[in-house]
Amino acid sequence: MLVALCATAIVVIALLWEVMLPYFERRGEARRARKAALEAGHIGDFDPGRERRAEQRARELLRSCVNEEEWEMYRDLGLIRVWGGESLDKELRGVPYAYLIYPHKPIVAYLPQTGRLLNEYCVEFPDESKPYGSSRLPDSDDVLAKWMALKGDERRLINSANMHLPGRQVDQKTIQRDIWRIGRWERERLERTRRASSGAA
């Protein structure tokens, strides 16, 4: 009986060790990484909420820069559509192409009338001000940088970007689904606006 209890205890301890070992290894790696960063002077007081607050500030800045429709599109769908040709000819109306701006993905050019995908344009706006952590901008800052570049000098951005055929980095089915989502979103928004205006009258 005593031998059976000892054998059971040994098995339980062995199983617990197997389960807990990865946890202890992760804790040790995190402790060593933090110690190395402190010794290198990369971080002072680590703040785990820093990235979240940076994204919140970036969203507020994006909202103050883009128009109401673009902000609502980003808020609801996570992307912004920008009509092509706006920086080339301010009087241009009914432009035949548009861009989809995603955070940290290529800009996608397409034909809204047919949904045909044209190209992907890879551009990057790294955050050079950070002394530690990721060099990537917060998502909303990345979207705003692309939006500003397209609105300010579309031709220059497109000429300096790495151009690829659609589907290289952003899945074509995802893009087609997002184009469909934008169409549905616009119809619903138009219907809400129509109901609000008829209710006010």
Question: How far is it from the N-terminal to the C-terminal residue, by CA?
Answer: 88 Å
**Largest sheet, spatial ordering of strands:** 1-2-3-4-5
| Principal-axis shape | elongated
Percentage of β-strand residues: 5-15%
Number of strands: 5
How many individual helices?
5
H and E string: HHHEEEEHEH
Characterize the main sheet. 5 strands, antiparallel
User: Unreliable stretches, pLDDT < 50, 5 or more residues?
Assistant: none
Average pLDDT for all residues: 81
Secondary structure: helix percent: 55-70%
From the alpha carbons, calculate the radius of gyration and give it in angstroms: 25 Å
Structural class: alpha+beta
SSE blueprint and pairings:
Layout: H1 2-40, H2 50-65, H3 68-77, E1 80-83, E2 98-101, E3 107-111, E4 116-122, H4 139-160, E5 162-164, H5 172-200
Antiparallel strand pairs: 1-2, 2-3, 3-4, 4-5
